[in-house]
Amino acid sequence: DDRDLLHFFEPASASADSSRVSGLFGIPALASGPQGLEGMLSTAVHRAQGLVEAICASRTDEELYGLVRLFDRLSDTVCRVLDLCEFIRGVHPDERYISMAEDVYGQLYSYMNVLNTHVGLFDALCRLKATPTVWNALAEEEQAVALIFLRDFHKSGIQLSQRKRASFIQLSDEVQSLSRHFLTAQEQINTPPPSHPLPGVERRGGQVYIQATPRNVQYLLQLCPFPSARKAIYQAAYAASDEEVGILDALVDRRHRLAQAVDFSSYGEMFLSDKMAKSPEQVEVFIQALSQRNASVVRGDLSLLNQVRQQDPQAAKGAELAAWDRSYYHRLLRASSPSLSSLTPYFPLGRVILGLSRLMHVLYGVRLRPSQHAHGEVWTEEVRRMEVVNEDGTFLGLIYLDLEDRPGKARGAAHYTIRCARRHWPQEGPDDQGGTVYRGGSQWITPMVVLTCGFSQAHRGMDIGEVETLFHEAGHALHAMLGQTTYHNVAGTRCAVDFVELPSILHERFISEPTFLRLLSQHHHTGAPAPLPLVQTHLSHRQTLSSLEDQQQMVYAMLDQRLHASRQQGQEGSDAAVREAEAMVGAFSHIPGVRWQMDFGHLVGYGAGYYSYLLDRVLANRVWQRLFCTSGISRESGENLASCVLRHGGGRDPWMCVEDLLQ
């Protein structure tokens, strides 16, 4: 098995099973290509309408007892198509698929907004809640699912008049459209730096233009020795027009109007009302407390940079250290240390995946098993299909790994849910996507997820940061595999946004342990493990100036809160919010004219919830100390994590999960 796993990630090993032909993800409806999405849309709406009718007709105790099941099936019917389209829009390389997914997603999203304001559906839930003999007989998970649906109805304006509900739906559609426009604007803001004299650069036939991608900008800021040129690069990289910033400001405005329509003072208040943090005030207090705790370390790290800067003949005397100086002096600081051999050759992708599988087995008794994909099942032949199986060989779910960079691929790493786990009820008939198994006398729909990264030549070796990223995303995937709840709506990562990062941060934490990292390593030529002192030194170097990155994350989180806080008449837009956030928790002074908020794509997916990374990192550190520093990497510690957190998905109060874990 180990040899199979290692070989599976060699470039030449990727080939489809030509004897099997299927649609994308093995979905029969997509065997005909992207037009199959239209058929999936039609089928989903037809099934949804049937479920809506059954829900609205529920009156007897027996019918009400099965109501949560019907609601969950309705949600699953719609979400399967929406989640698939969301993945295609973000990852698929074929423009035909992307265009069709955009259209289908838009239509189904509008239909979902109609369902979210459907009075008959809401009334049925109210009947259930108002019938104690039935409500009290429901399991904890069933009640949690019902309450989630009730909260969603209230947030969607169910209490509004018909005219106001129609306006609410229109606003929701505008939020969705503006979100897409904002992400598109991000991709288009690639203004080349202005002409600036860089000594040593020879110009031939005119000017040289460099696309202002984050990677290019980072390289330039690290390498450019001239402060004025670094300033020009930084300002150009984070420049944006009023029209572009207007897209973000309009998005924030529509969110605010949505919240006000359902009697919240702000979008932040509405979003956080059912999260762990509960309120915007609590979040801001948390961020500021974290900033104060980090302050002395930040001062020390800034002092280190200033010491390096004092040795720089190009630096203007008395000038303040600026944001564009950080990367350059950080590089000089690291260069002043003894040179280190690279660790990259010790972490070829196959070896890292094998180590991940072994860790999964030690902690949870599950492992990864290579599986050949059918022809047409994947979107590029670089994708690897992995089965997750129990110790007895029981199939738990599928993980598709799309880890290598390619032209046109979105930057960054991500986890996509294609299909959630849930129980499959006998009256449903066969599931048209397959993926069902019998367990414990019942039939279950198994989860299917995709992990995407942008590694380069990972089969030859990965740096520690890439290994950490992979383990982080694998933490999300494991949550989906182990959190197989009865109901789709609380399965795996379908939990509170400020709880969902806890498992992934815990799993990336293993990479900061020198002993485990060494066990994970094996040189791709010699087969030797990485020397422990080299591993320890690399990990130590990664912590250099880490407080400044932590502080920048606090600025992002505070900006997110400031944008979505209560608004006064005539309040300025996102430019003002940036100034406020940097004044409250920034390590560097605000730079007029810089509009880095347009590069902060998490404002779409994590609007009012970006603090989640910070909160879950604090919680993860406490859990790590309590669980893994006490019991080590063992089945006992893994079982504690699984039983207290992972298996519940979103079906239990997250604070209760954390409390159980820390006891």
How does this model look, in words?
The chain has helices at 2-8, 36-56, 61-65, 67-91, 95-116, 119-129, 132-135, 140-155, 162-188, 214-223, 227-237, 242-261, 267-272, 280-310, 326-335, 349-364, 464-482, 501-508, 514-520, 532-542, 546-563, 574-585, 602-605, 612-631, 635-644, 654-662; strands at residues 17-21, 366-371, 374-375, 384-390, 395-404, 414-419, 422-424, 436-439, 442-445, 448-455. It has 663 residues and is of the alpha+beta class. It folds into 3 domains: 32-159, Glutathione S-transferase Yfyf (Class Pi), Chain A, domain 2 (Up-down Bundle), CATH 1.20.1050; 192-197 and 209-338 and 547-613, Neurolysin, domain 3; 344-544, Neurolysin, domain 3 (Orthogonal Bundle), CATH 1.10.1370. Strands 2-4-5-10-6 form a 5-stranded mixed β-sheet. A 3-stranded antiparallel β-sheet has the order 7-9-8, with no helix packed on it. Strands 1-3 form a two-stranded parallel sheet. Helix 18 (501-508) packs across helix 24 and helix 21 crosses helix 22 (574-585). Residues 190-195 and 198-202 have low confidence and may be disordered.
